Amino acid sequence: MRILCVLPSWIGDAVMVSGALAALTDRHPEARLTLAVGPAAAGLFADWPRVDEIIILKKRPYAGHWFGLWAKTVARRWDVVMDVRGSGLAYALWAHTRHVYRRQDRFQDLHKTWETGSLLGLDQPLLPKIYISEARREHAARLTAGDGPILAIAPMANWVGKTWPLDHYITLVKRLLRTPELEGARLMTVGGPADQGVCDSLQQAVLPEQRLQLAGQVDLLTSTACLAHARLYVGNDSGPTHLAAMAGAPTLALYGPTNDKRYGPPQAQARIVRTKRDYEWYQAQGAHLGDDTLWMLDLDVATVERAALSLLEETTPTPTPELTHV
Questions:
Q1: What is the pLDDT of residues 199-247, one digit of tens each?
Q2: Which of 8-12, 262-266, 322-326 has the lowest mean pLDDT?
Q3: What pLDDT was estimated at residue 85?
Q4: Cα angle for residues 288, 262, 87 (degrees, 5° grid)
Q5: What count of Cα atoms within 13 Å lies in the side-chain half-sphere of residue 45?
Q6: I want to staple 196 with a disulfide (CB 3.0 to 4.6 A). Which of 50, 216, 270, 286 is the partner?
Q7: How many whole angstroms separate alpha carbon 309 and alpha carbon 176?
Q8: Angle at 143 between CA 154 and CA 13, to 5 degrees
Q9: Rounded percentage of the chain residues whose pLDDT exceeds 90
């Protein structure tokens, strides 16, 4: 049995629909999988079981990436095609069963995980799930070994509009590391290669022996396994924030111009802190991906600090079942 799955380009989006891929994998335990996914999120599926091929779906002009994917897959007969991007590709391929995303108004006030469940005909949310090999887990344990708890931060996002200012993060780190819960903590920064410079600047807020800089140094799955060791994570609406929540870290997600009710981390140990404005206000102002307005400026450090301390009181760091051994 062969299954083709067309998955998102962004890390956070890929995390959000991973529950559907897991449910489909469990539903057909004998199936072999081919995954088509954007380059940024491809590493998230490196340890997924029974995957024969990961096709990197890199955007090209005039929808050339879709024609390229069709050319690679049209000669095969697929038992199931699942397209979470609603591209229409499934209807141009021979497939016995198709699960294709279609936007439905009835889900607009519900979390994305409900829509993910409906993709497979389920009337229930499907929480994110990922597979990480034992070798990566062991590597993560070695990287994070040491004295003191870990405060994890991912200070960047794929849009400046949803990025909390670096100086606010620096102030927050200094304040949190003076609290009894995080006394003697190490600062772990995570992100991609492009985030390394900002993470290096943030690391200057702590002593050299407290620094654990992983941005641009490890792959997505190893970074996720490292986040499972964090006592607290704070970050923007970004891929690392969803990875931290999925890893079981007490996660504080900072939101402004994006919709936390629909796209915030759904895990029980995750909390949302918003700016003083609601999502609808930003929509009325025309906030959109790619504009250069600094929408997060009115979220002050004191508000985030209070939320972080409350989260520390309410939680203990325990890796979740959504991080599956392979």
A1: 999 999 999 999 999 999 999 999 999 999 999 999 999 999 999 999 9
A2: 322-326
A3: 94
A4: 70
A5: 32
A6: 216
A7: 8
A8: 35
A9: 92
Q: Which residues of 242-277 are buried (b: 16+ CB within 10 A; e: fewer)?
A: bbbbbbbbbbbbbbbbbbbebbbbbbebbbebbbeb
Domain 134-325 sits in CATH 3.40.50.2000 = yes
Determine the pLDDT at residue 267.
Answer: 95
pLDDT tens for 63-111 read 899 999 999 999 999 999 999 999 989 999 999 999 999 887 777 888 9
pLDDT above 60: residue 280: yes
190: part of which helix (H) or strand (E)? none
The residue count for the chain = 326
How does strand 186-189 pair with strand 251-255? unpaired
Q: How far apart are CA 63 and CA 142, in angstroms?
A: 43
> Helix or strand or coil: residue 221?
helix
φ, ψ of residue 274 in degrees (nearest 5): -100, 160
Q: Quickly tell me which residue has 């070994």 as its tokens.
A: 145
Separation CA 65–CA 204 (nearest Å) = 42
CATH 3.40.50.2000 domain extents, the chain: 2-128, 134-325
Q: Residue 102: its pLDDT value, please?
A: 87
What residue type is assigned to position 133 of the chain? S
Residue 163's alpha-carbon distances to 2, 85, 166, 254, 258, in angstroms, are 41, 26, 8, 9, 11
**Whole-structure pTM value:** 0.94
> Would you state the CATH architecture of domain 2-128?
3-Layer(aba) Sandwich (3.40)
- Residue 128 tokens read as 């994110």
